[in-house]
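Sequence only, no structure available. Ideas?
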Amino acid sequence: LANTLLIYFIKRYKSVRTTCISIYMFIFLLIVGTHYYQFYGNNESILIYTLFTSSTLFFFLGPILYFYVRILLNQQKINLKKDWVHFIPLFICIICITPWIADSANEKIIFVRAVINNRLLLLANPDNILLIEPQILLLIIPVHILSYLIVCLYKIIKDDAVNPGIVHTNATVNTLIYLFLLFQCYVAITYSLGSFSLFYHINLSPTLVTNFPPENFDGTEYGVAALMILVLLTTILVYITDAKSINKNNISNNSA
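Reply:
I predicted one. Tokens follow.
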């Protein structure tokens, strides 16, 4: 709801295109739905289509958001001849889930029934249904999305530093995008902490765990830690931007 309201306010500025941000929101909501259902849903027919869907779509979010921020700040349109490299992780992920896509309907139903009884199978890769270990994906996904979010956040902060005050015509839009990015970073950090915790308990914890209750797949208990990390991250980005601005001003004054 908060994201939808932010996009609505952004769209009020007719000079700002919202195609990329709308696509981002649609994919984000699709990820939330499929990710929730693969860990909590019990309908076999729906689970066949939601398993591993969110893992794939996560690699689509970062580039779309990056393109939007770039268009907003630099008026630089998407050039598929150069920008296709941003989608390499997405293509690799699709290739990695090819065995699951190619499986017969009966084999998928058998696996889905096993998953309903034990969600830990989603991280175990039985019968090599994926070309990559799910636990590796569990670590790569947060790093990938957070990297793009941090870059976008830095670009917005830097643009406000370069064009301060009322004279900056995009100041209000930048503020809205900044709020949007902060919320996305908070969600991504919370998800990341949950993923890292799950990875730890599966691989490094001395206690052998054979199954997890549903709440173990939910990272909401890390909300306070995620907020602290977000504040620290934002402070660092602002400090870097200020340091660069001070250095640039010193160089200009010395040249004068």
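The CA atoms of residues 149 and 185 lie 6 Å apart.
Hope that gets you unstuck.
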